[in-house]
Amino acid sequence: MRRELVILLEERSAKVMLETFLPRVLDEKIEFRLIAFEGKQDLEKRMTMRIKGYVNEYARFLVMRDQDSDPSCINLKARLIEKCNASGRGDASLVRVACRELETFYLADLKAVETALGLKGLSNKQHVAKFRSPDYLTSPSHELKVLSKQTYEKIGSSREIGRYLDIDNARSDSFRNLVQGIKRLEGELLAL
Question: What InterPro entries does its record include (predicted)?
Fold first, then answer.
């Protein structure tokens, strides 16, 4: 029996971040597989069939998508849950939505960004209101580019930042929910 966590993602930047983040979070008995799609439309179009056709009957699935400009996080999550249920494996699936963008997670942990990108003094800005609760920012990726003086690069920086993100960081509710979801599925897999 393979204890496997399969994470379906809308884009490559989330994949490279999780490649360096998950080994610090998951028990070594858990294998993980990251499947990046070509954007949110591709994810929503193909996720049901990918989950349904997945060979490992013991696998658990986590679908992660940015909210972006979708007006309702709740409706978006419900729509993705419907697609998981349509696969016939809804009971083995979980959906997590990043409030606005993946970069929200990074803005919630400026110490990780500072360390990963070598930007001295960045973590001192964590006390600024918008970085204490970054889930409410309209364009986190723009904020991060400005804050990092344009050194933030979506793929390369995400890989490095993933190495340093604080697993227990609670400044972003969506990040905290993602970690809790990963831990929940890990618990289910370890109980098999």
Answer: DUF4276
